[in-house]
Amino acid sequence: MKTFTYYNPKTYILGALLITNLLLHSQKKSVDITRVKIDTSATQLNMDATYNRPFLKSGKVAVALGGYLEANSMYSSEDGVSEGLSFQARRLTLFMSATISKRIKFLSEIEFEDGTKEIGIEFAAIDVALHPALNLRGGIIMNPIGAFNQNHDGPKWEFVERPNMASEMLPATWSNAGFGVYGKTYKGKWTLGYEAYLSNGFDNTIINNTENKTFLPAAKENEERFEESNSGKALLSGKIALKNRKFGELGFSYMGGVYNKFEAGGAVLDKQRKLHVFAIDFNTTLKKTGTYIVGEYAFVSVDVPETYTQQYGNKQQGFFLDIVQPILKQKVLDWEKATLNIALRLDYVDWNLGTFNETQTNIGEELWAITPAISFRPTSQSVFRLNYRYQWQTDVLGNPPGMKAAWLFGFSTYF
Fold this sequence. Notes:
Number of strands: 20
Largest sheet: 16 strands, antiparallel, barrel
């Protein structure tokens, strides 16, 4: 995923090695390196995912380190033709955080994807804590649309692939230069949280891309969004989340603004064209069975110019639903709380809602997929997963769907 200007990967690797060496040097002086564990308290929301990660920290070093690794193998076929067996080094992500002073924190997230083929800064922001209900954040922020965009770490999921709705309709790990506020408040078993940001955002590539359809993830290719706004207007993104310790968390989010360059040098090029994204997310754990359920739905509205053909949709929708059922929890070898899960995911995306003007027949461009899975967690921070994904997708004309099936086996772990 391309989320920032690309630099020589040796620069990032050298920096990480220098910090690691500093931590090890401190350890030689009898300073213990400890792991800051994930906070799993009932008051945590999806918006806390940025800091809700394990870190390694030395008592005499201000910077804490962490990260995760994802790798897998895949055997797939499409319409009966096999593409063979492949091994994939999906991503290596590094976290660095620091408490600069009282009430001021910094966190960064740097991702190396496909073996440094793509390198991006997904998050790099400073937080200023004024009150639990009012905090300031600025830098490279992760726009809070839905839940997956912020809570995307591989070790948290039982599935190798990311949800289609989050990665192919919405731009997964969508981040921009911006500034905003966030906070939480509590009462009894209830937690209420909110976020609101102004940032740079989308550009004309969402309707002018190699996919030949309205495709929001194409905007991630624009590295200049970390330097300036394409439209000259801010993208507004915000979320309200409500959590009950017994029933789970429900979130409502919005992201929208002008995406096109409508003027240059005082000359009007086009009218201001806007996009709007609305999302609902939910997650809960059934106490009697331990069943974990998480899902997300999103609706996209884009003002597409009248000169574009109908294959460029002005309305899109999609959802995913995961159901995870633990079937075994016990000590295995030296792992005290090992867990074996079975899981199921349902994916759906419609990139072009509506009918053709001429025939009133349905416009295609739809995808459905179902993925049963088995996963083994020696600890909560590592997962080994076996998935079988079956997908069928129609083209814009609604021709018989193309069928694709894949076996995926891999792991993901924090470190």
